[in-house]
Amino acid sequence: MTGYDLVIRSRRTVTAGGEQALAVAVQDGRIAALHAYDAAPPAAEEIDLRDLALLPGMVDTHVHVNEPGRTHWEGFASATRAAAAGGVTTIVDMPLNSLPPTVSVAALAAKVRAAEGQCHVDVGFWGGAVPANVKELRALHEQGVYGFKCFLSPSGVEEFPSLTPSQLRAAMTEIAAFDGLLVVHAEDPALLTECDGPTYEQFLRSRPGAAERSAVQRVVELARETGVRAHILHVSSAECLDVLARAQADGVRITAETCPHYLTLDAEQVPEGDTAYKCCPPIRSAANRDVLWEGLAGGVLSCVVSDHSPSTPDLKVPDFAAAWGGVASLQLGLRAVWTEASRRGHGLGAVVRWMSANPAALAGLAGKGGIEPGKDADLVAFDPAVTEPVDVRRLHHKNPVTPYHGRVLKGAVLTTWLRGRPIDGTPYGHLRFGD
Hints:
DHOase/Allantoinase_Hydrolase, allantoinase, zinc, 17 strands
């Protein structure tokens, strides 16, 4: 007689309490119980990973899927296949660069129709906060978006304009009224300049760290004034960390994230003309990267998410002034972060906290982000020791352009389970909506 649907054993099961020798019992798609490695009751299916690691599925709350409207850049089918291959079991889709952007209930409905039946992992949605839609924000919240993305500087697409300081205050006031979440692309447009040439050095000068710091200061001041929950997206400049740390110590409701490319790449290694490295804000110096790691280890930065923002190869022209800005890395984030984290003495428990538990908590995804009874059985078999160079031909991104091509990364995703079922090419991901 069988007990559970599935039991997966690993001597390196990563829970909130650290790595433990455990048997994870699954029933009806959820984690039913945790047992000692050799003491689980029988199950219809039993898998023993031995010394391979068992992780919770990663939660990536910063993914530009781009469908509908720019599906030739990326789409739900290709993005979620890439996510699954990279150990990511839940993504939250950004409101741009799709057409229409997700700034109204009607636009959200169009996004949902586009996603239905295509998703290999679970998918949630951010709404957008733009100058003309303050009155739409509550309705979008009630439809289940996890929060609202805004820009303080030009977004790069005309249909998603940035907010002025007064418009930012109005959006924050409205979102605070229903205790929503505002996530902010924080660069001060007054401190950005036109990139005056094709080189990476010229591009980097055009988007200085001071522009991030100034914008973060503005968000902190308005979050303090309005009481809104605010989250700073893709922090690339270490100049922001002291501002964030002081605000957090003062009780301001503000959190922040960074991305794998800011933690693993640096400006000194960007090959001239290789615009796969171009993103906004930009990849900065190795010394800056070291301080970001300190901010992450200290908890000032709480999440590491991809900001997967792909485009077609023709938009990545070999000119840093003209090329599309965005790094494609959804399939590679876990391996990239583990490579650098392990080199710096951080364990898998820290990586899981940054890439699974904390992003799930940010978005309010209560059933995600950890291996514990009651949560979805979203699990990843991971070999932490193997090393292998990245080959773009093995990526599932629709347009496999990435700065990681040829880079040797540590770790391998062997199997990804969504609610206890191995992801096998059949799209059975759920569309998820907040309370």
